[in-house]
Amino acid sequence: MKWTLFLFIFILVSCAQLGLRGPAGKTPERHIVFDIDWTIVSEIKNPTPVILKNPRVIDVHGSYYFVNEGLEEFMADILSHPEIRISFYSGGKAVRNQELLSKIKLKNGKSLLEISYKVLGSDELVLVEALPGARFAERFKKDLTKISKDLDQLIMLDDTMNFVVDSSDNQNEHVFFIGKAFEYFENFKDAEGMSGEYIPHTYDEWFLNRKKLNVLNAVFKEAYAESVESGISFSEAMKKREVMLNLNDNEWNSYVSSYYKKFQNIKIPKTPGAEMECRHIAKLLMGR
Ligand SMILES: [Mg+2]
Fold first, then answer.
1. Which residue from 90, 149, 185, 220 has the fewest beta carbons nearer than 10 Å?
2. Cα 178 to averaged position of ligand 1 atoms, centre (Å)
3. What share of the chain is helix, strand, coil (3-state, %, to 5)?
């Protein structure tokens, strides 16, 4: 009887280990970390009745947020790669973050909270030395090693520059700056005539703000394929595209336009042969 029990436990442990390694055992675990405010959602300060009827607007403890276009599709594309973990790292409070993420649902019915690897909030920010009167993001920093120690395989998308600790592991090299985000306007005409740092001044600026996650989705697909194919680190593959896009300018330069076109044209099938097809498409795109 004892031996039977021992054998049962042995098989159970062996299977669990196999499960952990899984079919992607040779593939390193990769991480994508999303900032929340102005990266995946845009807060709406004074929502009109029309805006409140928009199914993409969610109410989180009395604050209203527009769920940025293309978010669910982006998440689904990332999740088609089982070795990639999605986390969220925000300066917001934990309860707010969790409530917000629980209200954004993917097509499979799961919420972003359910599919997340880690959700870090204000409690996980690091207080650093700063001059008196310094802004929030100068006094508090995100520490990416709280998500994973292997930063080569980690990238965080954030609309705030230099929001990570200044450490010897050079965490800024693992942040993809997505450019300044504008306030939410249902249509560009609603912003016309207004002034302010976060008001889009042209239709193109408004449109890019609206389609940014689509562009980043295409960037991710290509960078992921290159990382798998060439062996360069995932963060390096992403960062070299950040430079080309230069999203800080809020301009549809040729790289931004081409990634948006790729997003519209490429649909990577989520079948067993998807990875091979993905590489093939990436080869075509890179002219190899
Ligand atoms: Mg932000």
1. 149
2. 10
3. 45, 15, 40
Provide the 10 A C-beta neighbour count for residue 165: 18
Complete domains list, the chain, with CATH = 26-285 (3.40.50.1000)
Q: 230-253, pLDDT tens digit by residue?
A: 989 999 999 999 999 999 999 999
What is the side-by-side strand order in the sheet with 119-120?
Answer: 119-120, 84-89, 30-34, 154-158, 175-177
Residue with structure tokens 């993917």?
A: 106
Place of tokens 């194919």: 229
The answer to whether the CB of 117 falls within 8 A of the CB of 86 is yes
CA 109 – ligand 1 centroid, Å: 26
pTM: 0.82
- In the reported structure, the alpha carbon of residue 221 is separated from the centroid of ligand 1 by a whole-number distance in angstroms of 22
CA 40 from centroid of its chain's CA atoms: 7
- Using the mean position of ligand 1's atoms as its centre, give its distance from the Cα of residue 195 in Å: 21
User: Can you read off the two tokens belonging to residue 101?
Assistant: 């993420």
